Amino acid sequence: MISSVKSSWRLVTSSVSQGSVLGPVLFNTFINDLDDGAERTLSKFTDDNKLGEVADMPEGRAAIQRDLNRLEKQADGNLTQFNKKCKELHPGKNNPMYQYMLGTPQLESRLAEKDLGVLVDTKLNMSQQRAFAAKTANCILGCSRQSIASRSREVILPLCSALVRPHLEYCVHFWAPQWKRDVDILERI
Hints:
alpha+beta, 7 helices
């Protein structure tokens, strides 16, 4: 409703339409109050939401489950639903690996999960991310070698800067290689 003019109701059968001018505003309207009343940290970034906190005691586990129940109830009240691609990641040594539920299905537990484009595992070891970045960069280099006839520096350097380096540098401050073998693999590229 704007001023005194009211639009008619329309059924939305999927998510907020992407690419529209109004889409981000509508999406933010839906998720803006997700963290109201949350006992644990709820992080929102674009269309990803992450609920997390230390749950080394039964009280912490119960608080996370209460937050998940509250989120499900809030979605039902708004006549919406979560995309059930939710996963659990249990980082840390001696983690009790509690199982959580969002609605009726139990959330799938993973040993490694991509988070904002970075592969994170339960040991917070970034070697899988390094291997993924190196493989992607090598594939791009292989395609470039086969499709670019010129080997001149003027052609290759801008091409590598635009196509290869972003894969090697994306979030590198987060997954910075710590072991010599990881550094060597990336430097060989």
